[in-house]
Amino acid sequence: MKLATIGYEKATLPDVIARLKGAGVEVLIDVRAVASSRRAGFSKTLLSASLNAEGIGYVHLRELGTPKPGRIAARAGRVGEMQAIFRDHMHEPAAQLELEKAKAIASGKKAALLCYEADAAVCHRAILAERICQALSCEIENL
Fold it and tell me: How confident is the model at residue 36 (pLDDT cuts 50, 70, 90)?
């Protein structure tokens, strides 16, 4: 079993959908705190509709997003600071609850975690993927 991750930073919506379909993803888990985007097609409503039209489910788990101070650190290139902020955030009850939801989804279907950054290594989704895969004994597949 594999858990995919994908970032849309340098991609178009058709590119992202093609990569998801190519990897056999059944449900996309949006792990952005703010599910809006200046990039065409990546705001929550349009993204969800586009994925559903292609047979891919969509779930937004807002509490698995990086808090605002972490997003500011990430934009400034302070990845270590962002990661520390996010790890602290994951102790919050709401984040723990949504982490359990993500695990449940990923245990039953081929899932992908979505965020902005193209490189998973500089994105909080790498931390999430690691936690989910430790719990489910699965592998991470960065698309």
Answer: confident
* Ranges of each domain in the chain: 2-142
CATH superfamily of 2-142: Protein tyrosine phosphatase superfamily (3.90.190.10)
Strands of 14-90 (E only): list them.
Answer: 27-30, 57-60
Measured between alpha carbons, how far is residue 75 from residues 17, 66, 101 in Å? 25, 12, 28
**Which residue is listed with tokens 């919506």?**
13
Please state, in angstroms and rounded to a whole number, the distance separating the CA atoms of residues 40 and 105. 27
* pTM value surpassing 0.90: yes
Give dist(CA 136, CA 65) in Å, integer: 21
